[in-house]
User: Fold this.
Amino acid sequence: MSGPPARAWRLRSNRSKTSIDAEQNKAAGGAHRRTVELGPGKTVQGTVTLKISETTGVIRAYLRWRDQGRTVLKSLGPVEHRTRSANLAEGWKRAHALGLVHDEALPSESWASSHEVRAAMRGNRGRDTSPELRLRAELHARGLRYRVSVRPIPELRRTADIVFPKERLAIFVDGCFWHGCPEHHRPARKNAGFWSTKIAANKQRDLETTQVLAERGWMVIRCWEHETADSVANRVVSMLASSLSQD
Assistant:
C-alpha cells in the first residue's frame, strides 16, 4: 500500500519565510488566528507543522511555538487530506478546538470592526502595493515601459499608479476596501457612518478623476486589486493598440 503523496505534507525547500508565513496565515484563517497564550499579557504566534512516519506512512499535524527559548510541540493528531494546504487547515481547526490557540483581540483604539477590515486599512499604502507591483512586473515582462505614481496632468492633483505619458493612458489600481469594491467591500461596523461617508467620497472622487482626465484627452483604466495582473495587462495592451490604430 502506497503512502500519501508528497504534496500532502512536504514543504518545498526553496520557500521563503514570507511565503511560509503567508501559507500559515491562509490555512489558519488569518494571522490573528495563530495566537498562543503564554501567560498574562504574553502571547506568541504558533505554526502548524506536518510530519510523516517512515514506518506507517501516516501524516501527523503538530502545533509548534517558542517559549523562553525552547520549542514546544503539541500533537494535533493524524491528518488524511491529499494536499498540504488542506492538512494545514485541518491542523489549525483542531488547534482551535483544543483551545491551544485563540484569536488575537483587536486593539481597543482600532476603528475596524474585524481583523479583516483592519488588515485592509493597514494595507492601504499610497504606492507600491502588492497588486501594483504584480501589474508593473507583468507589463514590464511584456516589454512595456511606463512611469509610476505621477500626475497625468501636472497641475491637476490626481496621481495615477501607472502612466503611459506618450500614449496618454492612466491606470489606477483601486483597493477593494477603500474604493468600495462591489464584490469584496465589507462595510465597517464601528463608526459605520464615518466610513460610509468616507468610502462614498472616495468613489465620487474616482468618478470625477476619470471624467476630468477623459475630458483632457486621456484614456483611463481602473482595475480592482483582486483582478489578476494578466487580465489587467491584456486590457492595457488592447487599449494601447487601439490608441495606435487611431493615430
